[in-house]
Automatic annotation (TrEMBL):
<dbReference type="GO" id="GO:0046570">
    <property type="term" value="F:methylthioribulose 1-phosphate dehydratase activity"/>
</dbReference>
<feature type="binding site">
    <location>
        <position position="109"/>
    </location>
    <ligand>
        <name>Zn(2+)</name>
    </ligand>
</feature>
<keyword id="KW-0456">Lyase</keyword>
<dbReference type="InterPro" id="IPR017714">
    <property type="entry name" value="MethylthioRu-1-P_deHdtase_MtnB"/>
</dbReference>
<keyword id="KW-0028">Amino-acid biosynthesis</keyword>
<dbReference type="InterPro" id="IPR036409">
    <property type="entry name" value="Aldolase_II/adducin_N_sf"/>
</dbReference>
<comment type="pathway">
    <text>Amino-acid biosynthesis; L-methionine biosynthesis via salvage pathway; L-methionine from S-methyl-5-thio-alpha-D-ribose 1-phosphate: step 2/6.</text>
</comment>
<keyword id="KW-0486">Methionine biosynthesis</keyword>
<feature type="binding site">
    <location>
        <position position="107"/>
    </location>
    <ligand>
        <name>Zn(2+)</name>
    </ligand>
</feature>
<keyword id="KW-0479">Metal-binding</keyword>
<dbReference type="Pfam" id="PF00596">
    <property type="entry name" value="Aldolase_II"/>
</dbReference>
<comment type="function">
    <text>Catalyzes the dehydration of methylthioribulose-1-phosphate (MTRu-1-P) into 2,3-diketo-5-methylthiopentyl-1-phosphate (DK-MTP-1-P).</text>
</comment>
<feature type="domain" description="Class II aldolase/adducin N-terminal">
    <location>
        <begin position="16"/>
        <end position="207"/>
    </location>
</feature>
<keyword id="KW-0862">Zinc</keyword>
<dbReference type="InterPro" id="IPR001303">
    <property type="entry name" value="Aldolase_II/adducin_N"/>
</dbReference>
<comment type="similarity">
    <text>Belongs to the aldolase class II family. MtnB subfamily.</text>
</comment>
<protein>
    <recommendedName>
        <fullName>Methylthioribulose-1-phosphate dehydratase</fullName>
        <ecNumber>4.2.1.109</ecNumber>
    </recommendedName>
</protein>
Length: 214
């Protein structure tokens, strides 16, 4: 769908939802030093074409301004005239939307997701088992086990984006960058937020469990 055919009220709704999520996550200190990025798809996916709103690069995410977000296309290029630059990691968002058809992608840097991704980095995945919040991913088996992929944190974002297709698991809506942060997604902002909160809880449990084994 062309951006010009997407109703203005749809764009406003997406931008308002993103602003609310940004404010909530900022209150949790999930955007230290302007890090992290949030995006939501605007309109439907039409073949290989789609658009999404994403946080602008280098902005203070504890503040709410008209310059917090811009809309980009499936290649991560601004779809409207703007002086804003999309997040440096926009290409990773592009791949996740293309591969999953999701409605929102949230990325944050936290102490626990950094520590646990580094600890399991050589294994390329974080193993999690028997923790209640695995149910947040609609996995209901008793003593359920999942693995969250861990990708290397290259300086070249396009090199990371190329690795995303090889690790995506439709049952596990998240990917970690080693010693960097988590990308979590969902059908909409509510589900992406739910998944992100579950991952963060699971990573904290996993880290504290390792401490208890010392």
């Amino acid at each position: 769908m062309s951006l010009v055919h997407i109703p203005a009220e749809e764009k406003r709704r997406v931008l308002e939802e993103l602003a609310d999520v940004k404010e909530l996550f900022a209150a949790r200190n999930w955007f230290p030093g302007t890090s992290g990025n949030l995006s939501m798809r605007v309109g439907d996916i039409d073949g290989d074409r789609f658009h999404f709103a994403i946080t602008a690069s280098g902005k203070d995410k504890t503040k709410r301004t008209p310059e917090d977000f811009l809309i980009v296309d499936q290649e991560g290029r601004p779809a409207e005239t703007t002086s804003l630059k999309p997040s440096a990691e926009t290409l990773i968002h592009c791949e996740i939307y293309r591969l999953t058809g999701c409605g929102a992608v949230f990325h944050v840097h936290t102490v626990f997701n950094n520590l646990i991704s580094e600890y399991y980095g050589e294994q390329d995945a974080v193993p999690l088992q028997g923790i209640e919040l695995i149910k947040a991913f609609n996995i209901w088996e008793e003593n359920a086990a999942i693995s969250v992929p861990v990708l290397p944190n290259y300086a070249d974002i396009s090199a990371i984006a190329k690795l995303v297709p090889g690790v995506l698991n439709e049952k596990v809506p998240g990917v970690l960058l080693r010693n960097h942060g988590i990308y979590a997604w969902g059908r909409d902002a509510f589900e992406a937020k739910k998944h992100l909160e579950a991952f963060e809880f699971l990573f904290e449990v996993a880290y504290r469990s390792l401490l208890l084994q010392k």
